[in-house]
């Protein structure tokens, strides 16, 4: 079988695949929530090794990809201002806003710096008290606690020239929105193990019961994903819909209490727009009133920036799992890693980037259909 030698334990991989093949009796559509899982699936050819009846749908689990265009444009506006040092992880610099990206701003003279931790940005603020330092805080439940801790430290240490541009999103409301979509085909979920390592699994049983879908918490290595698929298919074949933790080496049912306490102190839940999808209720965080002075949107008065996605970009449909990347007419032609139309082509966890990087280019695009998740 192709790619089988890339698994850490080929014999175990074969046994898992054999069991999946022996178990499945009808078509099932599963969604992996995390972009890291998507890259592992495409890199190792897992989707091509599974039975034809098992389809893996790529979900909106790339935090860079779901950061809305208006937030990117707010970042570009702030980064362009004199006296600002704009700090970000490197994967945000190539994400296109309206007509440019953070690399372009840096080329135009803006002080845009790549950091490896939000605490790096806080140190820069300490070292440059005469300048405003902004950190671009994006991501799911995994990156929110360190960003919350950094704001907490800025307030405790009295560092007034630090602020956070927040675009944090939460996974369970996204699953809810996907399942409520009239065009939804998802029958089971591979939940992101790193998210659950922070938040635990408390929010998932209600979702599984309400929508009658199994939710299996899964890791990111090929064997983790195969085990997650095996458990999900087994539940579907038995007519079950429960939450199953297939990643116990990293995930405890209660999650990380200290991280959750920090989130509850610094952030509050809010409605949040997802790029290409729209506003999902209660799907994000913003700084709470006690920490509002550290909110870059308020500090730089960029709350009212409005934008529009490029008509040729279908990344929203990719993020909803309605199409595969190669089914977009612009994929690999108008849209490439060097000339991206959307974040899904440049993010290290984007589905379009995975298909392009691992040469899933030889498939025929499907005709366009207008669909929406919300």
What features would you highlight for this structure?
disordered N terminus, Rossmann fold, six-stranded mixed sheet, five-stranded parallel sheet, alpha/beta, about 375 residues, 11 strands
Describe this structure in words.
The protein has 374 residues and is an alpha/beta fold. It has three domains: 4-62 and 172-245, Rossmann fold, CATH 3.40.50; 64-169 and 256-299, HypD, alpha/beta domain 2 (Rossmann fold); 315-357, no CATH class. The chain has helices at 10-23, 35-44, 46-49, 63-66, 69-79, 102-107, 118-127, 144-157, 171-180, 193-199, 204-211, 222-238, 257-266, 296-299, 315-319, 351-357; strands at 28-32, 54-58, 84-88, 111-114, 132-139, 162-169, 188-192, 215-218, 243-245, 267-274, 278-287.
Q: What is the compact description of this entry?
A:
The chain is built from 16 helices and 11 strands.
Average pLDDT, to the nearest integer?
90
Query: In CATH terms, what is the architecture of the largest domain?
Result: 3-Layer(aba) Sandwich
Enumerate how many helices there are, as a single number.
16
Radius of gyration: 21 Å
Succession of helices and strands: HEHHEHHEHEHEHEHEHHEHEHEEHHH
Q: Which strand order spans the largest sheet, edge to edge or round the barrel?
A: 4-3-5-6-11-10
Strand content: 15-25%
Structural class of the helices, strands and pairings? alpha/beta
């Amino acid at each position: 079988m192709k790619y089988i030698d890339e698994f850490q334990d080929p014999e175990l991989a074969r046994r898992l695949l054999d069991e999946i093949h022996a178990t499945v009796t009808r078509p099932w559509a599963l969604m992996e929530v995390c972009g890291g899982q998507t890259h592992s699936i495409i890199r190792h050819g897992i989707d091509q090794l599974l039975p034809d009846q098992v389809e893996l749908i790529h979900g909106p689990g790339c935090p860079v990809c779901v950061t809305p265009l208006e937030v990117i444009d707010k970042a570009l506006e702030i980064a362009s201002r004199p006296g600002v040092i704009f700090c970000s992880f490197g994967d945000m610099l190539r994400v296109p806003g309206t007509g440019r990206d953070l690399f372009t701003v840096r080329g135009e003279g803006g002080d845009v710096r790549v950091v490896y931790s939000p605490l790096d940005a806080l140190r820069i603020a300490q070292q440059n008290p005469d300048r405003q330092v902004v950190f671009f805080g994006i991501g799911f439940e995994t990156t929110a606690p360190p960003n919350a801790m950094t704001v907490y430290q800025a307030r405790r240490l009295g560092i007034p020239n630090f602020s956070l541009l927040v675009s944090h999103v939460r996974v369970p409301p996204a699953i809810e929105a996907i399942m409520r979509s009239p065009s939804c085909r998802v029958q089971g979920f591979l939940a992101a193990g790193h998210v659950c390592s922070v938040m635990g699994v408390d929010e998932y049983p209600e979702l599984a019961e309400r929508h009658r879908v199994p939710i299996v918490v899964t890791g990111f290595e090929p064997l983790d994903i195969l085990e997650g698929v095996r458990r999900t298919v087994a539940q579907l074949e038995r007519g079950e819909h429960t939450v199953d933790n297939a990643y116990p080496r990293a995930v405890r049912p209660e999650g990380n209490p200290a991280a959750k306490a920090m989130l509850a102190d610094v952030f509050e839940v809010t409605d949040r727009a997802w790029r290409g999808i729209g506003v999902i209720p209660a799907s994000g965080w913003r700084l709470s009133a006690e920490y509002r002075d550290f909110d870059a949107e308020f500090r730089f008065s960029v709350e009212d920036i409005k934008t529009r996605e490029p008509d040729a970009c279908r990344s929203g449909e990719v993020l909803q799992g309605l199409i595969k990347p190669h089914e977009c007419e612009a994929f690999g032609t108008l849209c490439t890693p060097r000339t991206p139309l959307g974040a899904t082509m440049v993010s290290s966890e984007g589905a379009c980037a995975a298909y392009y990087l691992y040469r899933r280019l030889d498939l025929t695009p499907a005709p366009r259909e207008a669909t929406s998740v919300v």
